Amino acid sequence: MGQNVKIAITGAGGRMGRTLTRLIAETEGLTLSGGIEAEGSPHLGTDLGTLAGLAAPLGVKVTDDALSVIKDADALIDFSVPAATLEFAALAAQARIVHVIGTTGFKDEDLAKIEAAARHATIIKAGNMSLGVNLLAALARQAAKALGPDWDIEILEMHHRHKVDAPSGTALLLGEAAAEGRGIELGTHSERGRDGITGARKEGTIGFASLRGGSVVGEHDVIFAAENERIVLRHVAEDRSIFARGALKAAQWGLGTGGKSRGPGLFDMADVLGIE
Fold first, then answer.
1. Which of 43, 125, 159, 220 is catalytic?
2. Which of 163, 189, 249, 260 is catalytic?
3. HSE (side-chain half, CA atoms, 13 Å) at 233
4. CB distance 220 to 171 below 8 Å
5. Are the CB atoms for 60 and 46 separated by under 8 Å?
6. Dihedral sign for Cα atoms in the order 74, 79, 82, 83
7. What's the pTM?
8. 125 burial class (0-12, 13-18, 19+ CB within 10 angstroms)?
């Protein structure tokens, strides 16, 4: 890939934004070209390097002018909220730049808009950007395919107290993988938020449970339970930098050889990592 690839980020003042700033600053061949924050953010006008705690400023300030940032970037890494991501997707599609989406909590109508934007730009979207999680998804798909419907599938996840959506995007990614392995639709074969007298567990469904507390970065278990035995596949994230590193890898993959976009399409981390 060519040198001085220009990367822009959203949520520049957040924990992920600051982590991305530090990683981009220390990665040869990458330049942080811009950082976006919401209108009214206290971080507007602050140097990105100063915000991220770097030894020296980067000469790039946080702005709420997304259009100016996106038109000058080769790729946009976006960990924000669904409404903002849809706006960024439209702008990135117009600018024909790579859009890496780590945002979670989308509705079906949101996903349709992202698919429309992907007809004009390279979009890499994943509920989790980590290599380990995406390998876990591949294993869950394989296990679900190999084991019959008499093996119940449950997905348990825990995150920090500040997370606003449940189940997590990663849990849904794992659920989709298991459903695909079993040849079923997750939307019609999932159970969430059990409470009260729910009756016996329905055969063939995929259950979800969400825990929130403390500063947990992310823990996910995919449990296959049958009579007298269980298989538990687990991933533990110990630092959020794994997601930032994965997002940078996705951006570099999307840009391809010579720093040029691979062309329009909607991709995920399995494509980036070459996992079947």
1. 159
2. 163
3. 23
4. yes
5. no
6. negative
7. 0.80
8. buried
* CA proximity to 136, closest of 152, 122, 151, 157: 157
**Average of pLDDT values for 203-216?**
96
Rg (CA), the chain: 20
Averaged pLDDT, 104-116? 94
138 within 8 A of 235, measured Cβ to Cβ: no
Percent of the chain scored above 70 by pLDDT?
97
Token pair belonging to 93:
């599609």
Give pLDDT tens digits for 3-51.
589 999 999 999 999 999 999 999 999 999 999 999 999 999 999 999 9
pLDDT given at position 261: 67
Structure token pair of residue 244: 């930032």
Question: Does residue 30 contact residue 248 with C-beta atoms inside 8 Å?
Answer: yes
Quote the CA–CA distance of 48 and 67 in Å, as a whole number.
Answer: 18
Q: What is the 3-state secondary structure (H, E, C) of the chain?
A: CCCCEEEEEECCCCHHHHHHHHHHHHCCCEEEEEEECCCCCCCCCCEHHHHCCCCCCCCCEEECCHHHHHHCCCEEEECCCHHHHHHHHHHHHHHCCEEEECCCCCCHHHHHHHHHHCCCCEEEECCCCCHHHHHHHHHHHHHHHHCCCCCEEEEEEEECCCCCCCCCHHHHHHHHHHHHHHCCCHHHCEEECCCCCCCCCCCCCEEEEEEECCCCCEEEEEEEEECCEEEEEEEEECCCHHHHHHHHHHHHHHHCHHHCCCCCEEECHHHHHCCC
Instruction: Let me know: does 154 contact 223? Beta carbons within 8 Å.
Output: yes
**DSSP bridge partners of 124:** 100, 267
- Structure token pair of residue 137: 């998804």
Q: Alpha-carbon distance 178 to 183, whole Å?
A: 9
CB atoms inside a 10 Å sphere around CB 208 = 23
The answer to whether residue 163 is catalytic is yes
